[in-house]
Amino acid sequence: xxxxxxxxxxxxxxxxxxxxxxxxxxxxxxxxxxxxxxxxxxxxxxxxxxxxxxxxxxxxxxxxxxxxxxxxxxxxxxxxxxxxxxxxxxxxxxxxxxxxxxxxxxxxxxxxxxxxxxxxxxxxxxxxxxxxxxxxxxxxxxxxxxxxxxxxxxxxxxxxxxxxxxxxxxxxxxxxxxxxxxxxxxxxxxxxxxxxxxxxxxxxxxxxxxxxxxxxxxxxxxxxxxxxxxxxxxxxxxxxxxxxxxxxxxxxxxxxxxxxxxxxxxxxxxxxxxxxxxx
Amino acid sequence: xxxxxxxxxxxxxxxxxxxxxxxxxxxxxxxxxxxxxxxxxxxxxxxxxxxxxxxxxxxxxxxxxxxxxxxxxxxxxxxxxxxxxxxxxxxxxxxxxxxxxxxxxxxxxxxxxxxxxxxxxxxxxxxx
Lengths: 279, 128
Hints:
A: about 75% helix, B: four-stranded antiparallel β-sheet, 1 helix
C-alpha cells in the first residue's frame, strides 16, 4: 500500500516537473524581455482577468483536441490539466520574477499581479505543450489515424505554434518599426512569402510526418487549402498577441491593424507550421 | 486498450493545490480591480543634500510617482536662477515610473546652487 502510494506521488511529481520544464522552455525568453514587465506593470485588472481566461481557453482547446487521440481521456481530464497548467505557469513565472527582483516586497500589488499574469502566459503554453509532445499521451507515437476532430486539432496546433514563436516578437518595438516602412507592394509581398514558407515547412522539407500530412483528414484535405487556412489562423493569433501587448488598440485605424497583423503574421505562420509538424 | 484509471490521491492533491493557487490569483485581481484608486498621475521631485566634489556641485534628486497611473518619459528640469536670469540648467529623463515607484539621479552644476535660486521641477511626462 505504501509503495503504491509512493508510486502515485512519483508519477504526479514527474508530470509536474515535466510541465514546469516545458514552461521554462517557452517562458524564459519573455521573462528577459523588459517590454513585458512594463506592459504588465500598467495593465488594468480587467485585462488581467481576460488574459487569464483566454490562456485557459487556449490551453483547454489544446488539451481537449489531444484528448481525442487518447481513447481513455475524458473532458474533465482536459479541464484538470488546463487548471494545473495555469497554476504551474503562475508559480514558475512568479518564482523567476522574484528571483530576478522584478517583483519585490516593495512592488505594489497591482503591478506585481500584472507582471505575474502576463509573464505566466508563455509559461502556461509551454506547460501544455510539454505534456503534448513528450508526455502522458504515449499512444500518440504510433497513431496515424486521427480519431475525432482533425480540423480542430490542426487549428489548435497552428494556434499554439504561432503563439509560441511570435510571442517573443509581439511585445517589442520591431513590428511598429517595420510597419512604418512596409507600404503597398512590400506588404502584399509578405502574404505569398508567408504562405510559401509555411507550405515548405510542412509539405516540402521532408521533415517527419510529411507523408501523414498529405494523407490528412479534415476539412482542409489538400495541402494548399491547409496552408491557406493555417495562414488565416496564424494571422488571427498574431492579431491577438498585438492586442494583448497593447501594440494595437481598438480605436486605431484599420490600416494599422492590417499592417501590423500581416507583419507579425510571417513569424506566426512559421510557428503555426512548426506546430502542425509537431502535434 | 487501457481501462480508465481512477484518479489517484496524488492527482487530487495536485489538482486541489492548483485550483487554490488559481483562485487566489484571480481573487487578488478582483480585489485590485475593486479597490483601484483612479487618481491621475502626480509626480513629485525632491532635491537632496548638495555636495561638492572636485569643484563641481552635485544636486541629487529623488522623483516619485505618487499618483494612480503609470507614466513614461518623465522629464525633470533643474534651473539655477539669479532673479529672472537662468544661469545654469540641466535636465534628465526617467523612462518609466510606475505607481509608487521612485527613481534617483543627480544634476551637476559648475556654480554653487546654494548661492542662487535652485528650482528642481518635473517638466513633462507621457502616458504609455
